[in-house]
Design goal:
Keywords: Phosphoprotein. Pfam families: Response_reg (PF00072). This protein is α/β, with parallel strands linked by helices. The chain is built from five helices and five strands, in the order βαβαβαβαβα. A five-stranded parallel beta sheet has the order 2-1-3-4-5, sandwiched between helices.
C-alpha cells in the first residue's frame, strides 16, 4: 500500500508533533513534509518535484495564513485540485464560510484534549486512505 504524502502546515511545532505522533501511534503509512506558514508551503507546492496527496493546514499563521494559502493554491492550475483540510482553533463561522467559498475539502476545530484530537486525525486519515484506494 502506497504511503500517503501529506504537506502539514502549522506555525506551532507542538501541533505538528502531535499530528505526527497520532500517525505513528496508529501505524499510518505517511510521509509528512512540514511547513511553518503559507509562504513556505507554497514553495513546497510549487516545486514540481513534490507531489502531495493532501494538504493539512492551520488557519491562523504569520506571513501567510491558511485562507490566503487556500486561495493561492486554487489559482495555480497544476495544484488547484489538491485536497486541502483546515485545522483550526477558531470557532468563527466567517472563517468556515470563507474556507468553503475557496474550495476547502474539509475543516475541523482542534480539540483541546489529545485523545479527541487523535480521534479526529485518525478519522481524517482513514477517510483519505480509503479515498486514495478508490481513485
Amino acid at each position: 500500500m502506497k504511503s500517503l504524502s501529506i504537506l502539514l502546515i502549522d506555525d506551532d511545532a507542538i501541533e505538528r508533533m502531535k499530528f505526527k505522533q497520532v500517525c505513528e501511534k496508529n501505524n499510518f503509512s505517511c510521509s509528512i513534509l512540514e511547513a511553518e506558514n503559507g509562504n513556505e508551503a507554497l514553495e513546497f507546492l510549487n516545486n514540481t518535484e513534490n507531489s502531495f496527496d493532501i494538504v493539512i493546514s492551520d488557519l491562523q499563521m504569520p506571513k501567510m495564513d491558511g485562507l490566503e494559502l487556500l486561495k493561492s493554491v486554487r489559482n495555480i492550475n497544476r495544484i488547484k485540485n489538491i485536497p486541502m483540510i483546515i485545522m483550526s482553533n477558531s470557532q468563527d463561522k466567517n472563517h468556515l464560510k470563507k474556507c468553503y467559498e475557496y474550495g476547502i475539502s474539509g475543516y475541523f476545530t482542534k480539540p483541546a484534549s489529545f485523545s479527541k484530537y487523535s480521534k479526529k486525525v485518525v478519522s481524517l486519515l482513514k477517510y483519505w486512505k480509503r479515498n486514495e484506494l478508490i481513485s
